[in-house]
Amino acid sequence: MICTGADQAIGFLRLAYCADNTAELVIAIGEERMWGQGYGRVSLSEALKIAFLEMRKDRVIAHIYHENSRSRHLFVSRGFVPCTQGTYSTKYQLTFDAYLHPEVSERDEIA
Predict the structure, then answer these.
(1) In this predicted model, what pLDDT tens digit does every residue of 44-103 receive, in sequence order?
(2) pTM for this prediction
(3) Which are the contacts of 5, defined by CB distance < 8 A and separation ≥ 6?
(4) What is the separation, in whole angstroms, between the first and last Cα of the chain?
């Protein structure tokens, strides 16, 4: 559960196991009045710590709806890069190396 400082539940976070040592991340904040308050940013940071440092995953993916510009901006700002585009959403990924070395983007590594 994602809660406010007053322990009011405003959303949830889910880390699901996938094939190839990957975790799928879902963050949902249902209280629209709480959007833009930093809860997603804090939740994403904590989820990445768990996925990479505790679960020892090589990669985290997230499917983000095209119209969800806030979520897209949040994930891209943390180093996620698009890897597959669908009709309604795009799959973004962050590798363990990119998490450890955010100053080096995956595009730089490929070049």
Answers:
(1) 999 999 999 999 999 999 999 999 999 999 999 999 999 999 999 999 999 999 999 987
(2) 0.85
(3) none
(4) 40
Tokens of 83: 């890897």
Phi/psi region, residue 21 (left: phi>0; alpha: psi -120 to 50; beta: rest), is: left
CA distance 21 to 95: 11
Distance CA 49, CA 38 (A): 17
pLDDT tens-digit series, residues 69-84:
999 999 999 999 999 9
Q: Please, what are the domains in the chain?
A: 2-110 (3.40.630.30)
Closest CA to 14 of 60, 67, 74, 80: 60
Angle (deg, nearest 10), helices 39-49 and 69-77 = 40
